[in-house]
Amino acid sequence: MLLLFISALLLPMSSLHAASDNTDAFLKRHWTQPVAPQGKPPKSFSKLEASLEPSACGTCHQRQWADWKTSLHAHAMGPGVMGQLVGVHPTDTSSLRDCTRCHAPLAEQEASLIKKLRGKKRTDALHEQGLVCAACHVRKNVRYGPPPMTPKPGGKSPHNGFIGTPAFEDGRFCATCHQFGADGYALNGKPLENTYAEWQASPYANQGKQCQSCHMPDRRHLWRGIHDAEMTRKGVTVETTPPTAHDGQVSARLTLTNSGTGHYFPTYVTPRVTMQIYQESADKQLIEGTLQEKIVARQVSLDLSEELADTRLVPGERAVLDYLVPRHPDAQGIIMRVHVEPDYFYSGLYRSLLEAEPDGKGASLLRAALKNSLESSYDLYVQRNSLSMP
Ligand code: HEC
Ligand code: HEC
Ligand code: HEC
Ligand code: HEC
Ligand code: HEC
Q1: Ligand 3: which residue has its CA nearest to atom 25?
Q2: Nearest of 12, 35, 27 to residue 132 by alpha carbon
Q3: Residue from 31, 281, 75, 297 nearest 174 by CA
Q4: For ligand 4, atom 36, which residue shows the shortest CA distance?
Q5: Which of 90-94, 119-123, 244-248 has the highest mean pLDDT?
């Protein structure tokens, strides 16, 4: 139910640029919805060259395959998505495409998903592999990729070689799925997905630092983001002033700066970042009444009808938490912490879907998704200071 509501909001991206260049024209042809069927492979192709399976590409492109397998793109059809899609009727392709156009874009994946929804025992399960290599790289059995780093020697190449195009090195390639167009769903005048526009307004765009520069360094296929603590640490700077206790008052300061994230920190409505300072007892427990915190997030209601607050950090911006709380008699230490819940919104969404239909078709998948979404949380930063006796 909620699925249908949300899907109605996900309108196709319209042109972001007034002036269109070759890259815009290429991307318009490249990202049809769904990506058109590949058709019959050329007679000269071996079975391996004809296959759309990531494992087939991985036979020859081992580095990309090893990276991709660990990425969220490879897990884009996990239980959170499937738990919502199992309730869709297999003939309702328009509702399916509202999700698969970003999560599993190939026509062959749509076909395999529909088979699955019809209850057929799986023959292949290309849709389960999410955003596969071929979705970004193969059209009508022709390989497309970035221009080669080093010119390749002549001779006969597998899959008839490839067409190199600078579109693969351009952030607009990513915007297809990471930016809503002007007609897409917006709250308070800001599209729900606005990463490309945030980046365009940042100094990184002027420096020519594309999405790929940070998310695919050295052309790696890892796409780390907020789910990865190391990546997130690269995007921010945490500073503290040592806590002091004077006249029965404890004071301290925690600062979080968006120092290296190419867009708002964080960019989506789904994560929640919490800055906290509190006093702790001898057994390292939070002492009630001593916590002060600040949330850095774009908070929206579960039905996406309302933006509750937007405290995300624009590139260069900082959030300051100034702590001033009476010293608790049991306090032995003071904790300064930055906590990240990458899937905060989804945990709430899965809970509400499960509450509405505890025995629904997708319930067991949604329970698995809820568990995953809670487990993705981590401490970005923790500092523990003892409160010495005055
Ligand atoms: C039999 C081995 C083999 C298989 C299977 C294979 N490739 Fe390739 N691929 C190659 C080789 C070798 C090259 C370099 C070709 C050249 O220089 O013309 C290449 C080139 C490419 C390029 C261009 C790289 C660049 O520099 O831009 C892309 C993209 C690509 N392959 C994607 C794929 C995808 C996606 C699949 C699976 C659907 C796949 N390949 C399957 C061997 C293979
Ligand atoms: C066909 C659509 C599509 C394209 C094109 C695409 N992405 Fe994604 N991307 C997704 C989806 C869907 C997810 C979420 C996967 C999931 O968790 O279910 C995602 C996830 C990510 C994440 C992980 C974020 C996190 O929460 O940690 C990063 C980073 C990312 N993409 C960067 C990129 C970059 C950079 C490009 C361009 C080179 C790109 N993407 C191109 C669809 C796409
Ligand atoms: C315009 C591209 C786009 C469309 C269309 C889209 N998504 Fe996503 N989806 C994303 C991106 C990007 C992420 C990663 C966001 C993040 O990590 O915060 C994501 C993440 C998710 C997640 C959480 C990660 C996971 O795999 O469990 C779920 C669940 C999800 N989408 C469900 C859906 C459903 C259901 C639909 C159809 C109604 C849909 N999405 C349509 C781009 C899209
Ligand atoms: C979300 C889209 C996406 C997916 C999925 C994807 N790639 Fe790529 N791939 C790219 C982009 C973008 C580049 C160029 C990055 C750059 O130039 O910074 C690239 C580059 C490449 C190259 C050229 C590497 C080089 O060093 O020159 C090869 C080969 C390749 N990809 C193969 C694969 C294979 C194999 C898979 C699956 C295991 C895969 N890709 C999955 C987007 C994708
Ligand atoms: C200067 C480096 C840099 C550039 C450029 C950059 N990013 Fe990021 N991105 C990061 C860092 C660091 C994170 C982790 C912190 C965070 O989540 O904000 C991140 C997180 C993400 C996420 C995780 C979701 C979230 O809510 O934060 C997505 C998706 C993403 N980036 C996509 C993109 C896309 C698409 C572009 C290009 C329009 C891009 N990024 C440009 C550094 C960069």
Answers
A1: 80
A2: 35
A3: 31
A4: 133
A5: 90-94
Distance 140 CA to ligand 1 centre (A): 15
Radius of gyration in angstroms for the set of CA atoms belonging to the chain, rounded to a whole number: 24
Q: How many CB atoms within 10 Å of residue 137?
A: 17
The pLDDT tens digits of the residues spanning 326-364 come to: 999 999 999 999 999 999 999 999 999 999 999 999 999
**CA 357 to centroid of chain Cα atoms:** 27
Long-range own/partner contacts, residues 214-223 (CB < 8 A, 24 or more apart): 214/262, 215/174, 219/146, 219/149, 220/63, 220/67, 221/63, 221/64, 221/67, 221/68, 221/71, 221/73, 222/67, 222/70, 222/71, 223/71, 223/72, 223/73
Predicted pLDDT at 274:
98
> How far is 129 from 126, CA to CA, in rounded Å?
6
Distance 46 CA to ligand 1 centre (A): 13
Is 192 a pocket residue for ligand 4 (Cβ < 6 Å)? no
Pocket test residue of 109, 143, 165 for ligand 1, highest count of atoms within 8 A of CB:
143
Instruction: Pick left, alpha or beta for residue 371 (phi over 0 → left; psi -120 to 50 → alpha; otherwise beta).
Output: alpha
